[in-house]
User: Which sequence fits this backbone?
């Protein structure tokens, strides 16, 4: 919602602000492969507490910037890294803790995003009208710091892991024991590859899931970043656009609950659900390119957020089913790198198309084609009998 406001405040182009927002997510994706290692070293709760504090402080600091460059540096370096790390460790934790009713647990873990879609559009609109964009940044930063409290709750519930500790020799000769553990360059890199789970990059199943996850995330990101601006370009006010997002957020919340019920009770396969959701999301993106009235955009937004919410949860379930629980942290981390690359390369594209043509029509047609990409690996996985 703040893209048009920030564009006007910094007297810059739409694509520049859009790209800054994409780069925030991109840097978070690049930091993803380290999340599993840091979580094992310090615990999930500690990581989330630290990320919550840094993310909130980044938004507070952003309220004092005076140029688009300063805004980019503040958000990309601090908000980006902290959001990326916390996202990976949360997904990994849910996957590890829930074997039964995983779809339901995953859906519940994503409800915060849906509730945010319901609450934040009108809230941000109120903040903007009452306090301006700087006050809005301050308030959102303060709200975001509550993530540290969530980390504290997880920290309290965590059970210390001692599996990685080595037992000392019975004779207590620590010096002798240490001497026998000789490190070499080869051993060092072997451990690095093991920590980062580089072996995933040689696994066809991983690349298939990466194509599905990354294309879905980049399409959703571009919709979130540019929808309000697109609605404004069609004569819809910011207030009306906020209402559309909030109502669609309610359907998004419902989708996360419904998909868990259907999948965990075996009513529908997660893979079939992915096929259905991919095609409906893609069709809705295509339709958004031509729709211009308030109610038609409302319907397309509801379809996009409903089926994207379900699709996001189901892809997490399919990732665990296809790769196994031990590779989840590494998979999510490397997904982040690839999504980050896409965000850097094409994250600014809808804004650039609008600046050149004065319309988002071509941009949303491209987004619709990108959302169809998951159908290719799905067909290949089915042909190779992985699913």
Assistant:
């Amino acid at each position: 919602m703040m893209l048009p406001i920030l564009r006007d405040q910094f007297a810059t182009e739409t694509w520049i602000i859009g790209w800054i927002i994409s780069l925030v997510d991109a840097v978070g994706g690049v930091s993803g492969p380290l999340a599993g290692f840091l979580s094992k070293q310090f615990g999930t709760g500690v990581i989330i507490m630290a990320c919550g504090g840094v993310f909130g402080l980044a938004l507070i600091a952003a309220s004092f910037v005076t140029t688009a460059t300063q805004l980019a540096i503040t958000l990309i370096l601090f908000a980006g890294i902290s959001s990326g790390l916390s996202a990976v460790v949360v997904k990994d934790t849910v996957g590890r803790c829930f074997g039964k009713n995983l779809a339901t647990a995953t859906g519940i873990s994503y409800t915060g995003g849906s509730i945010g879609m319901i609450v934040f559009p009108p809230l941000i609109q109120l903040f903007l009208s009452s306090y301006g964009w700087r006050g809005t940044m301050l308030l959102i930063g303060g709200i975001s710091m509550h993530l540290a409290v969530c980390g504290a709750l997880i920290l309290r519930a965590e059970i210390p892991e001692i599996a990685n500790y080595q037992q000392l020799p019975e004779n207590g000769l620590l010096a002798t024991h240490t001497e026998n553990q000789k490190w070499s360059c080869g051993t060092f890199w072997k451990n690095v590859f093991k920590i980062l789970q580089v072996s995933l990059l040689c696994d066809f199943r991983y690349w298939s899931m990466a194509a599905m996850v990354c294309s879905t995330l980049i399409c959703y990101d571009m919709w979130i970043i540019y929808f309000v601006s697109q609605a404004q370009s069609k004569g819809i006010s910011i207030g009306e656009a906020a209402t559309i997002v909030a109502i669609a957020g309610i359907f998004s919340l419902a989708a996360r609950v419904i998909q868990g019920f259907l999948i965990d009770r075996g009513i529908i396969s997660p893979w079939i659900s992915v096929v259905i959701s991919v095609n409906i999301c893609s069709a809705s993106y295509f339709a958004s390119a031509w729709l211009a009235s308030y109610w038609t955009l409302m319907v397309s937004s509801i379809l996009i957020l409903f089926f994207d919410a379900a699709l996001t949860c189901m892809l997490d379930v399919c990732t665990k089913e296809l790769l196994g629980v031990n590779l989840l942290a590494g998979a999510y981390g490397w997904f982040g790198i690839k999504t980050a690359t896409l965000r850097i390369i094409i994250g600014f594209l809808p804004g650039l198309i609008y600046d050149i043509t004065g319309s988002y029509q071509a941009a949303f047609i491209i987004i619709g084609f990108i959302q169809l990409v998951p159908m290719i690996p799905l067909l290949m996985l089915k042909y190779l009998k992985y699913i």
Notes: Residues 102-144 form the longest helix (43 residues). The chain has a mean pLDDT of 83.
